[in-house]
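Workshop exercise sheet. Pairs work together: one partner reads the sequence aloud, the other fills in the structure field after running the prediction. Swap roles for the next sheet.
Pair: D.N. / O.F.
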Amino acid sequence: MLVRKLNIGITLFFYIWTTYFVASQNPSLYVNNGKLIYNVDSLGNRVLDFSFCGYHNSQDDIPLLENKIFVPHREENSSQVIQQAIDFVEKLPLDASGFRGAVLLDKGTFMLDESLVIHKSGVVLRGTGKNETVLRKKGVDRNAFIKIEGFNNMHYTDTLSVLSEYVPVNSHYLTVDQVSRLKKGDKIFIYRPSTASWIKKLGCDHFGGGITALGWKEGDIDIYWDRTITEIKDNTVEINAPLTMALNVNDAACKIVVYEWPGRISNCGIENLLLQSDYDSANPKDEDHCWTAISIENASDCWIRRIHFSHFAGSAVILQP
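Structure field:
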């Protein structure tokens, strides 16, 4: 038994050493003269560049909007007075950069029994400091405390086929059929269906135990990448952020879907606040109170910064399309 363990240990050592040696000779990512260097595999795949995930694809700094209205501290329920201040800023005109202004809340703890909602672009809800302005949600309502929420009136205007046989991970380029129907600045979804053959190839059609109902079904794991066309050359389009997985024509026939979304809002933010939910302190399993601190839906290019959260039953922040 000792010899067998020793042999296994030696084998494992050489496997780890060999794997490390090979990886160190040809790493996927390394630093050279202070710069990140990416290697690609035989298909062109490389480590994904996540630097595009920031505000406006990390091309712009998060702005500091001018305060347009001040809400002084008050002891009584503050839901209506804060919402009225938000509504006031929403009625202001958008400036050339797409901003209206900020609602500044006073120091102190504000009690609220209703959610706050931002429905228009270019509005910021701001406290004087993350530990100085406190918003406390009371009651048993499980809805999100603060919502940045546009309108779901998105509609498709065109659908085209992706002709590329293989698009590697981190690519910005796709060959498209009838590219003349597209233009720079178009908002698109890159649609990759989850086909039965691909699901079977992954081994996810059956999760064992004789219960096939648990396996993925065709259409369950369809993927949509939300992108903007930045350039068009010949029949190739360039998109503003890379793809997070490879597109292989043998696995799925992918599409480009052009859309319009007039109700989607942008350039909204929540800043410098401590958000709390009341709960039954005698019941550590209490869930009959606010579940989510901040929810963002039907919106893009928004931000949440310098926020503290406590006692929410579900999530601090939920980001939805």
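Discussion prompt: The chain is about 15% helix and 35% strand. What would you look at next?
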